[in-house]
Amino acid sequence: MWKKHVLIIAIWLSSVVAAPVSATPEIGDLQVDPTRVANGRELIVKSDLIILGWPNQSYQTFETGGRIGQRRIVNFVQTVRVEKVLKGHVLAPVKLMSTGVEPLPDPADPVNMRYPGPLAAEQYVLFLKKVSGSDLYSTVGLWQGVYPVYDGKMISLRNLGFTELNQITMRELEEKIKVIHSAAP
């Protein structure tokens, strides 16, 4: 009888050892797609998920192995508490990945245009797409997909966001999404 149990345990252990540890890539190996979009309509169409939410102030850092001068290029992952889903479906908090540099540069540093890093803990409308091969999301067009919300209205970042999305309410955004979605082939 004990030989049968030993055999079963041996078979189980061999299957555990033979199974791959992880089928997903390391977060440091993932890449954010920096492709910019032409306008607000394309931003909405290219987004897998559009949410109103708050990024957590804390974040995790994953080394990419890249460098810019003395700074290390890293991937940041923040959890975003979702208040409202405007396009798409999500069941859990969203994990937002962005690429940035460490040490973090001053906000005015031009390196932030290509490597935005983690978001401040404020309310945003985020236009997101899946990061290939993961359960993570990144913003569409880097900064183009980030709209702070102030007094219930979206704020278009100067020279980065789209004027047709500036100063509109969530209801107006929902209507734009509905019109664009119904016109899609």
TrEMBL record:
Keywords: Signal. The keyword Signal applies. Residues 1-19 form the signal peptide. It comes from the Bacteria. This is Gingipain propeptide domain-containing protein. It comes from Brevibacillus ruminantium.
